[in-house]
Amino acid sequence: MEFEKLADTLKALADPTRLKIISLLRTRDCCVCELVPIFNISQPAISRHLSRLKTAELVHETRKSQWVFYSLNVKKLEETGFALNHLPDLSEKLKELEKQGLLVRCE
Amino acid sequence: MEFEKLADTLKALADPTRLKIISLLRTRDCCVCELVPIFNISQPAISRHLSRLKTAELVHETRKSQWVFYSLNVKKLEETGFALNHLPDLSEKLKELEKQGLLVRCE
DNA sequence: TATATAAATAACAATATGGTTATATAACTA
DNA sequence: TAGTTATATAACCATATTGTTATTTATATA
């Protein structure tokens, strides 16, 4: 479902740590060990936030020898902002429901 | 904090039921009893979703005799989409951290 | 090969979320 | 005033979220 997918992406964004990570990645790619000291949480916590962002396709990971660098998927982020500002128009659905008498009208 | 507030608003949006409610309100104001039969959840559940949206200032409520009508705060919704596409630039903060030697560099 | 570093995963705990049913409140109506 | 309808709140439960510490996996190096 459309709404389910958008809600999932928004959930991935709806956390201050993850928003800050994304903001940092706007400047440049970062590896996990760079990110950890910036936040007051443990390395596994950062790792899981990154994993969450990766699942939502908001970031991309690349291993470079012993480090894993994360980069922002700008396109996905932009698509999400766009989707928020262009939520589906349900006026047709409302009209249908009215025609079928399935809609209570209050007046 | 900037990120905290944005995260809170995004949390309010990050639910398929609430996204659909917002989409419906794009067409016109709706009262609670109109919304309830559209979803497969109870009236109190809808009521709490609306309450969540109200707290986030994404909707506005107006009582008209026995009904309570909810309307969309288009401005707040647009601001949120905009904020997503214009997350703060933290490059200065990164530079500062580097200067203070607080940033691990991996290469 | 043994050790060190980077990152992910496992197991667990506390809190948040989202649903339910029951009940309270507010406003109409006979 | 008593009853009805619309909505909100309370109490509760199951699951999700987000942190922790301990451990595992992957890579580099002495």
UniProtKB/TrEMBL annotation, chains A, B:
- Protein name stated in the entry: Transcriptional regulator ArsR
Q: Does the keyword Nuclease apply?
A: no
Q: What Pfam families does the annotation carry?
A: HTH_5
Q: Which residues form a coiled coil?
A: none
What UniProt keywords apply to this chain's record, in alphabetical order? Answer: DNA-binding, Transcription, Transcription regulation
Which InterPro entries does the UniProt record give?
ArsR-like_HTH (IPR011991), HTH_ArsR_DNA-bd_dom (IPR001845), HTH_MetalResp_TranReg (IPR051081), WH-like_DNA-bd_sf (IPR036388), WH_DNA-bd_sf (IPR036390)
The protein's organism comes out as Thermobacillus xylanilyticus
List each copy of the HTH arsR-type domain by range.
1-102
